[in-house]
Amino acid sequence: MNKLPTQEDTAAWMIQVWVSFAIALVATGVGIVNLPVTNWVKGYMGMGVLFTVGSTFSLSKTVRDRHEAEKLTSKVEEARVERILAEHNPLK
Fold first, then answer.
1. Secondary structure of the chain in HEC code, one letter for each residue
2. d(Cα 17, Cα 12) in Å, to the nearest integer?
3. What's the pLDDT tens digit per position in 17-72?
């Protein structure tokens, strides 16, 4: 069976993604800390940011898992069609 090539991200891309994520999180945190509101409001906003980040990770994993499952189902269907076509030879 032919093994399909896997998609590999470069180290530079991974560094860029994680650095931009860290900068966004730190910048948001600094912005919340410097708001002229009570600590209760700052805490609420901080929890909201953390919940949003966690939900984003969960959503992206779910979307990726669904995409990979559809690719697997597609490969199975393709193999089934190829087998049927190979068995059906009108010249026999």
1. CCCCCCCCCCHHHHHHHHHHHHHHHHHHHHHHHCCCCCHHHHHHHHHHHHHHHHHHHHHHHHHHHHHHHHHHHHHHHHHHHHHHHHHCCCCC
2. 9
3. 999 999 999 999 999 999 999 999 999 999 999 999 999 999 999 998 888 887 77
Here the tokens at position 68 are 């990979």
- In whole angstroms, give the CA distance from residue 48 to residue 79: 46
Q: What is the distance of C-alpha 46 from the center of its chain?
A: 23
Is 80 exceeded by the pLDDT of residue 78?
no
CA distances from 77 to 21, 22, 68, 81, 83 (A): 38, 42, 14, 6, 10
Tell me if 11 sits within 8 A of 19, measured CB to CB.
no
